[in-house]
Specification:
The chain has 183 residues and is mainly alpha-helical. It has helices at 20-29, 34-49, 57-88, 93-103, 105-108, 111-119, 127-152, 157-181. The longest helix has 32 residues, at 57-88. The protein starts with 19 loop residues before the first helix and ends with a helix.
């Protein structure tokens, strides 16, 4: 199997069909990190809004983070399929699956803050500490997704630093809202 400069596999199977590995490499090469940045901001916003949780606050926050990610993923898939895509091409299973994959980073971005909340008792954190940990993890994810996107796009180190800075400032703005709202 030969590799091109972009690292994607150029292998073909019987009758010219592409291998699963080459399709995965192509998807990675076209990856759009917008959903990851957006999902991380969404997760941070969920943490801010989670001021009054019930009897099982950690469990409720984990579920709130994950379920909000899934709901927004479904909303984005729906918008892509029936908004932009429907006008441009006929819908089939392949297109629907591709849109679901493209929007999946929204859900993936909710997982690290949810895991942070879930493991917070092991770190000796109370619920308030768990909220702050989840918020910091979400902001770090937001910065990380944006830098990954810039790097994948071939951005210069200066541009990667700029996108990291902008996303960190947006994250700090979200943290400021948390402080002002005093949850």
């Amino acid at each position: 199997m030969s590799r091109s400069r972009s690292g994607s596999s150029a292998a073909a199977g019987p009758a010219g069909t592409r291998t699963r590995r080459s399709r995965r490499a192509d998807r990675r090469a076209r990856a759009d990190y917008t959903g990851g940045v957006y999902g991380s901001m969404l997760a941070a916003s969920v943490v801010i809004g989670a001021g009054s949780l019930g009897q099982f606050p950690r469990t409720e926050l984990v579920l709130l983070l994950l379920l909000t990610g899934v709901v927004f993923w479904v909303a984005h898939v729906h918008a892509q399929l029936f908004g932009a895509r429907l006008a441009q091409q006929a819908l089939d299973g392949r297109v629907m699956l591709q849109v679901c994959r493209d929007e999946w980073p929204i859900v993936k971005a909710a997982v690290p803050p949810a895991v942070a909340v879930a493991v917070s008792p092991l770190l000796g954190l109370d619920v308030r500490g768990a909220l702050w940990l989840a918020l910091c993890v979400a902001v770090a994810g937001q910065v990380g997704w944006s830098v990954a996107a810039a790097r994948r796009a071939g951005a210069s180190p200066r541009l990667m630093a700029a996108t990291a800075s902008v996303n960190l400032l947006l994250g700090l703005l979200i943290i400021t809202f948390k402080i002002v709202l005093k949850h």
